[in-house]
Amino acid sequence: MAKQRQIKIEQKSALAAMQALETKSDAELESETKYRSAAYAILGARAAERYDADSSRAWFQKAIAAARPQERMALKRMADASLALAERRAGDLKAAVQKLGSEAPSNTQMMLLRLMGVVAPPKSASLVRRIFGPISIFLLISTLIAISLGIVELVALPLGGVTLGAALLYAVLLLAAVLGTLVFFGRRKQNRARSGS
Known about the structure:
With 197 residues, the protein is an all-alpha fold. The protein folds into two domains: 2-119, no CATH class; 127-196. It contains nine helices and no strands. The longest helix has 33 residues, at 164-196.
């Protein structure tokens, strides 16, 4: 019974250390000596947020090696979630986050991660997928400009039409305005969700 209590106290202290360490810089975390496993896990999670899967994997391997045996399972689950994010594996990310006991990402976040996997595939992806990434960006931008050009042409038609150069300029401005509005309202929605939780 006393041993179980000691394990729980150690786990709580490691968790508390991780929360306290999150405010430190990468250089400070690398030089951390008391809570090395927690510091390395944070560095692994930060690398995953930058979509650097190789670096994230290396940090988590160090974290698991430096951890106490009772902390290793939690760190492995954290590593699974972080690597799924870094490698843009939306389905695996959802399952890994649920195993951690956290709230699963929203459908919008999952869709954006899938889109990111197509547009900017990880280094581990096949050559075809990595070549298709930049091409898909070009196709997406071209499609959006074509749609906004069609809208401009339709609006200008009753007014006598507009030249192609002017229509392209208005189409780009319209597209920028729409994307700016979407970003603005999306951030407001995120801020409301954060303040509500």
